[in-house]
Prior knowledge:
Layout: H1 7-10, H2 14-28, H3 37-51, H4 60-68
Amino acid sequence: MTLASFPxxxxxxxxxxxxxxxxxxxxGISDATPVTTKQKKLLAARWADYQAGKSKRIxxxxxxxxxxxx
Length: 70
């Protein structure tokens, strides 16, 4: 299944697509969703990089700009 399967969704503005994607994501997860050891290690490494100043946060507006670029 791809976005092409839903032509009406392709016409939505990017912001609405992101909101829908978030709603779908939230509907599919719960606190009971298991997190693997590999995922925990990856998150720990990313958190350590952030705390060490090796990565930075971006605003939602900047994220939307990046996603809008072809």
